[in-house]
Design goal:
241 residues, four-stranded mixed beta sheet, 7 helices
Length: 241
């Protein structure tokens, strides 16, 4: 069954316009047909279409199902947006498919992209959530100066890692250092890497310099590999392996 998204379904039982158009005009669903809707907050609603409207389809909730996260920790990926926006959009799509709780675009001294449209990324996140049959929509923050983000994490109980390319700095391998089921925060820099003062601020705040393997990775690839590493370790431990 195709899954739709209506974040305020309990107070406003309608499909939003974009989902209404797809439901009525593309799928040609009719009054009386049942649809599956998520609020993006961990719930699935089995609903019946009350009337056909491609602008705002009214729904009747038939059943409510709680669908908790399949991963235990809170996973935050803070990443400097890539120069080419299509790569950033692809990264958000894949992070949502893998499973992430929060995505924070960070502005670094060497960032080539200094502005970003969060609304576009949120639409991509919603689409990825629906297609991967999840019921949790990650939070996507506004662009945040990297030093502000680092300071906000100074008292965090999460395992904090900064992906750093300078081999002269002692670095751990994320796959060996991370111990589940701890919350995890991953900080990824721009194409030109972090400035020295940004790395120092992160290390002083309790971040651990990390590498994600022997391969040199692009910014967006590093974010995906790091998130997936955390997920795989938690799944292995959850299965008792």
């Amino acid at each position: 069954m195709i899954r739709f998204h209506a974040p305020d379904i309990l107070t406003s039982p309608y499909l939003p316009e974009s989902d209404s158009k797809h439901c009525i005009k593309v799928l040609r669903m009719q009054a009386g047909d049942e649809v599956e809707v998520t609020d993006g907050k961990g719930h699935i609603y089995r609903c019946r279409i009350v009337a056909e409207s491609h602008k705002r389809t009214p729904l009747e909730i038939v059943e409510t199902i709680s669908l908790p996260k399949v991963w235990k920790p809170e996973i935050t990926v803070a990443v400097a947006p890539t120069k080419h926006m299509d790569r950033m959009e692809w990264m958000v799509e894949k992070l949502v498919e893998i499973g992430v709780d929060r995505i924070v675009p960070v502005l670094c001294r060497r960032s080539e992209r200094r502005e970003i449209k969060i609304e576009r990324l949120e639409k991509i996140a919603v689409s990825a959530m629906k297609q991967s049959l999840k019921a949790i929509l990650p939070v996507i923050d506004e662009m945040t100066p990297v030093l502000d983000f680092i300071r906000s994490q100074s008292d965090s109980g999460a395992s904090r890692y900064i992906g750093y390319c300078d081999a002269s700095t002692p670095r751990c391998l994320l796959a060996r250092d991370y111990m589940p089921p701890a919350d995890a925060t991953i900080l990824i820099g721009p194409e030109g890497d972090f400035a020295p003062e940004e790395v120092k601020a992160a290390l002083d705040a309790g971040f651990v310099a990390a590498t994600f393997g022997d391969n040199r990775l692009r910014t967006e690839t590093a974010a995906i590999v790091a998130c997936d590493t955390i997920q795989i370790i938690n799944q292995r431990c959850g299965d008792g392996l």
